[in-house]
Design brief:
By secondary structure, chain A is an all-beta fold. Helices cover 0% and strands 59% of the residues of chain A. In chain B, β6 and β7 form a beta hairpin. The chains are: A mainly beta (109), B mainly beta (110).
């Protein structure tokens, strides 16, 4: 069965302290790698899609990158409003979409 | 903007009750999904539908059924709710290789 694993489970940062979240996935048959942000009590909000190794996408303080076996979500100089759970998901050739359990990010002022 | 609307945000139901969770999308998308989300388990696919009156089982269909009579509406049905179905339920639609989610329905079964 295809798998997506995110690490760490939880991350606490000081405001301005940059870091990265990791997502590793089953490589065979990958069509796309997705990142979502989820605030408490709400549905996931789409952030990025990456399709091929070497691809990068940015949005404000977030940058997502993709290698042949993992993806990273880099957070530069985070602010408290970046606190959320970040979900990674992989879509495969059979349209199967697998989600990781998420990384819960807390940014302290 | 893609809009996926789940009409019930918070529900409390008794064991054995029949529960309907409604989801409506406004973009004429063919593909719709129901997931449940539990701490530490991530999102798990319950059912999905590629067209009106079509339905396919996901990873955890037991105890659930679905209905899709119109393209824009996809309903999740718990025939006889049980306490282990207490969870957050997320409806989603698939468009241009991306899945867009509704706000979620928190169901508590007591």
């Amino acid at each position: 069965e295809d798998q997506v694993t995110q690490s760490p489970e939880a991350l606490r940062l000081q405001e301005g302290e940059s870091s990265s979240l990791n997502c590793s996935y089953t490589v065979s048959g990958l069509r796309g790698l997705f990142w979502y942000r989820q605030d408490p009590g709400k549905g996931p909000e789409f952030l990025f899609t990456l399709y091929s190794a070497g691809e990068e996408k940015e949005k404000e303080r977030l940058k997502a990158t993709l290698t042949k076996k993992e993806s990273f979500l880099h957070i530069t100089a985070p602010k408290p409003e970046d606190s959320a759970t970040y979900l990674c998901a992989a879509m495969y050739n059979n349209n199967d979409m697998r989600f990781g359990a998420g990384t819960r990010l807390t940014v302290k002022p | 903007d893609v809009k996926v609307t789940q009409s019930s945000r918070y529900l409390v139901k008794r064991t054995g009750e029949k529960v309907f969770l409604e989801c409506v999308q406004d973009m004429d998308h063919e593909n719709m999904f129901w997931y449940r989300q539990d701490p530490g388990l991530g999102l798990r696919l319950i059912y999905f539908s590629y067209d009106v009156k079509m339905k396919e089982k996901g990873d955890i269909p037991e105890g659930y059924s679905v209905s899709r009579e119109k393209k824009e509406r996809f309903s999740l049905i718990l025939e006889s709710a049980s306490t282990n179905q207490t969870s957050m339920y997320l409806c989603a639609t698939h468009f241009l290789n991306t899945i867009y989610f509704g706000e979620g329905s928190w169901l508590t079964v007591v």
